[in-house]
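Entry for the shared binder. Reason: the reviewer on the internal report wants the predicted structure included alongside the sequence.
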Amino acid sequence: MTENSVPLLRLEGIGRSFGPVRALEDITLDVPAGVVTALTGDNGAGKSVLIKCIAGIWTPDTGQMFWEGKPVHLHTPKESAALGIETVYQDLALSDNLDIVQNLFLGREKLRYHLLLDEDRMEREAGDSLAQLSVTSVRSVRQHVGSLSGGQRQAVAVAKTLMWNSRLVIMDEPTAALGVTQTRMVLDLIKRLASHGIAVIVISHNLNDVFEVAGRIAVLQLGHLVASGPAAEFDRQSVVEYMTTGRASGRTEDRTPAIV
């Protein structure tokens, strides 16, 4: 991100409390388009709270969000989705008893003559969405989601975000509990999202995955953003040190956090 470019999303001084508990404190973070930003931190660091603020589930107590440089106030997930922000949670929010097409268009079905489901159009658009992500392992878009592998299910969840012109996709632990082959499939999906100009925020505890896909890394510790910047400025040891102590040896204190 160049000095004069405006990030797709900017968080400035974001804070959020739950009663006496301060879950987030003065979070300032840029999320550029076409880049994977990895959000890391130990359990309880505030990662889930932060993405739920971005998703419109919770409203920050303090601070301001900017979308393409303009201030926005997100009070509901619908308002977030209207900007093009979609979140893929760990449970994926898919219905196992429905097929891929039905899952992709659930609640947003296409109609003919205002009465009948336009099955042909939905099948075609579902196939196009999977093809855009180079998903070739699914036998048919009419295959029930309950019969899919973990990697294929992630692919369907990601394809669902693309159906609605998403511009920022948030993925919560997308490779958790996946095998080697399925993890490779999901990491390739994440890279393809970014290659299409979509901003991606990935929450992950797996630093191998983080360093493979991330262009930028942000580290939370006890509700504070303790470091952020290009992934090339970090290594695994420094990320672990930031996560556990809030600082890293070999970096001077005035570079913590390194927000650029």
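Summary line for the report: The first helix runs from residue 47 to 54.
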